[in-house]
Specification:
The chain is mainly alpha-helical. The protein has three domains: 2-115, Up-down Bundle (Methane Monooxygenase Hydroxylase, Chain G, domain 1); 139-208, no CATH class; 210-263. Helices cover 78% and strands 0% of the residues. It contains ten helices and no strands. It starts with a helix and ends with a helix.
Length: 263
């Protein structure tokens, strides 16, 4: 057995290393070991494992066959002890995998909430910008009936004639751009598709007194201050008032005769 002394001594050393490693493991539980300590224990087992296997194979080669059974039993006993340590490592590693998955799920959820918040803020901002744009284009001046035509035409262009928004949305835009008497007429309507045309028609019936509006437009022409000079600016201003008022009168109804209004 003398030629195998080195391998026998190595086996005794490895047994001592295995016992020392088991003592290190006994200081921890799989459920509360830190990642740093887990990595250290993994390194110990991974270093010890191949050495034990290699020593077993070397002993089988140098010992007589009748000694193989004893060497095999000793090897199996060491392997069983190693399996206990490997089970410990597997349990601890699974705990860290589950923890990492939980953290990743929380991060994904946080990212999802952030994305939803950003999208919601974006939509709210776009809605405010759109509302402001429509307000600027369609603000109804309650003080002058003649402004109904301007409001109506701009609102029709900006909202009424659109096909990409619902009638309920159109009603919301209409109500948000009204004030005074006009708002009082339609503010009680619920924001529903069926109510939009009713509210729109009601405003037309209330404000689109065509002859009354026409008389107001004629007043704009007649009340325009006389020119103090014959400058190009004064002539252009007078021409604009006349042209705009005449065009507005004609847009009311083909049956409206400007000559009749002037009588």
């Amino acid at each position: 057995m003398a030629p195998c002394d080195d391998h026998v001594n190595t086996r005794a050393y490895l047994k001592g290393q295995l016992t020392a490693t088991e003592k290190c493991f006994s200081k921890f539980l799989p459920e509360n070991i830190s990642k740093t300590n887990l990595d250290k224990l993994c390194k110990k087992v991974r270093t010890l494992n191949p050495k034990i296997d290699s020593n077993y194979e070397s002993l089988l080669l140098c010992l007589h066959e009748e000694d193989h059974a004893e060497i095999h039993n000793q090897y199996q006993e060491m392997r069983e002890r190693l399996e206990v340590l490997e089970d410990f490592l597997s349990t601890a590693e699974e705990k860290f995998r589950e923890e990492n998955e939980r953290i990743e799920r929380e991060r994904d959820e946080e990212r999802r909430k952030t994305d939803e918040m950003l999208q919601r803020d974006k939509l709210e901002l776009e809605a405010k910008i759109e509302k402001k744009r429509i307000e600027q284009q369609t603000l109804l001046d309650k003080e002058r009936i003649a402004n109904w035509l301007s409001f109506r035409d701009r609102f029709n262009q900006a909202v009424h004639n659109r096909t990409d928004i619902s009638r309920a949305e159109k009603l919301g835009h209409l109500i948000s751009n009204l004030e005074g008497k006009a708002l009082e007429i339609v503010k009680s309507f619920g924001i529903e598709d069926a109510n939009y045309q009713v509210a729109y028609d009601l405003l037309q019936d209330m404000f689109e007194h065509k002859r009354q509006i026409a008389f107001k437009l004629v007043d704009n022409i007649l009340d325009h201050p006389s020119m103090q000079s014959r400058s190009s600016d004064a002539l252009l201003k007078a021409a604009n008032v006349l042209t705009n008022s005449m065009a507005a009168i004609k847009s009311l109804d083909d049956s409206v005769d400007v000559a009749d209004l002037l009588l």
